[in-house]
Amino acid sequence: MPNKIDDSISVAPQIRPEDVPALAAAGFVHIINNRPEGEEFGQPTGAQIAEAAEAAGLGYTEIPVTPGGFSMAQVEAMAEALGSVDGPVLAYCRSGTRSCNLWALATAYKGGAPDALVAKGAGAGYDLSGIRPALEQLAAR
Q: Which residues form the Beta-lactamase hydrolase-like protein phosphatase-like domain (predicted)?
């Protein structure tokens, strides 16, 4: 289910608590939840995923992103979360797109090259061309 961006991060659509042991077995050490609570009927709560992550020995961070866009606080929180983890991370949202976009924005914020970020996103099946101007702006700051 996860779409690998590189050795440090993969993104995925909504996961369920019962998926977490397999994610741990696959080598992930941390889960980042980019999905707001109650976005869709029947989605697991963040608390349910956090509990499953803890039970499996994984770290867990919530950085909810609505489909309306990204704030600098979210970009900074994602950069901090990614920078504090030693090992592969799985970030998820409804489809994986917001997680991929937020990863790219956070990585550009930390100095990542937009061309490389767009290429990595494309390699995982995500088109980052819509946020290319934001990647350029963040990388140039």
A: 5-108
